[in-house]
Amino acid sequence: MKISFIIPHKGRLEMLKETIDSILNLNYDQSKIEVIVVSQNESLSSNELVSTDINNQISVILADEEGTISKSRNIGAAQAKGEYFAFLDADINLSSNWLVVMLEEMNRNKQRKIVSAYQVCEDDAPELEKLRTELSNAEVDVNVKFLPGRNLFLHKDTFKTVNGFPEHLITCEDYFFTDKVGELGDLFYTSKASYIHLGEDKEWDQLFHKEIWRGQSNLKSLSGRTIPLREYPSLLVPLWIFFFVIAASISLLLGNFFSTFSCVLFIALPIFLYSQRLNRMAKRKIKFGIIVKFYLVYFAARAIGTVVGVTKSFNVRNAA
User: Fold this and answer.
1) Nearest to 174 by CA among 307, 68, 103
2) What's the mean pLDDT in 106-123?
3) How many domains does the chain have?
């Protein structure tokens, strides 16, 4: 059966090439694989991605550079001829058994609607990348409530049933999409195949700026779907921290040190609880201080991003 790999792309070329190389090295009949790259670069051709494309299996579609990643994915899906769709980000290196495992796990249970592999990293990876990898692997070989969009395998009919990815969201589109698919059946996360996220956060400033960007669609992603209780902490904690940071700053300016100290405790509480949780998940393989630093940076950035997102939405409504 034919498999369509759909890859939204913008900017970096070397990681995209490595992503495609990993697809071309899969243990699967390459004549039954097509790769559709939807690029927001000004120009890009298949010749820039591989030295030779003997089977003509790689096609490039140039998309509006102002469009969302969801729009790029939907454009690719509209052109796809495969029975199954494999959505990858443009910085993913798949294990050679990835496609075989995806098909086996999908066919093992009729209730499964999406299958995804687990994340790995090199032994000498920076501490931040190791931490992000452990966070991605919180639940393995079980049905989960959410899957990141960088590594999804599903039947084309499932994609059509949920009307594709939400093009109105800048980020958090994978939350929205996999939540909709989850209403149809199971989302399964397997350890039998793996991938390396080449573009994973490795530096703290990279994490900070990315999470500001990701946080902009935090609240917007709530529209049009039922919000499970498990999502409320991640949505409310950034706002909680933002509120108490402002309150602590005002209290400090007013010379009310007791109120300032109380606000700092309220800021520290969710960071400590999240850090303890990740420390248990990672089986104490990562230094606790690194975990605390991660959540300090993460929640500060998410708070800023959430407020920026609310401000943008408010300005758009006023302009209308």
Assistant:
1) 68
2) 95
3) 2
Q: Which two tokens stand for residue 261?
A: 């100290």
Q: Give residue 320's pLDDT.
A: 47
Same domain, 28 and 102: yes
- What single-letter DSSP state applies at residue 163? T
> Do residues 160 and 273 both lie within one domain?
no
Continuous segment of H or E residues that includes residue 34: strand 33-39
pLDDT digits (tens, 9 = 90+) for 210-267: 888 877 776 666 666 666 676 677 778 888 988 999 999 999 999 999 999 999 999 9
Find tokens 């996220």 and name the residue. Answer: 197
Q: b/e for 114-152, b at 16 or more Cβ within 10 A?
A: bbbbbbbbeeebbbbbbbbbbbbbeeeeeebebbebbbb
Q: What is the pTM of this model?
A: 0.85
Q: Name the region of 224 (left: φ>0; alpha: ψ -120 to 50; beta: rest).
A: left
> Which residues, 6 or more positions from 159, have their beta carbon under 8 angstroms from its beta carbon?
77, 85
CATH number of the CATH domain containing 157: 3.90.550.10
* Residue 50 lies in domain: 3-200
- pLDDT tens digits for range 148-193: 999 999 999 999 999 999 998 888 889 889 999 999 999 999 999 9
- Nearest to 150, CA basis, from 168, 171, 134: 171
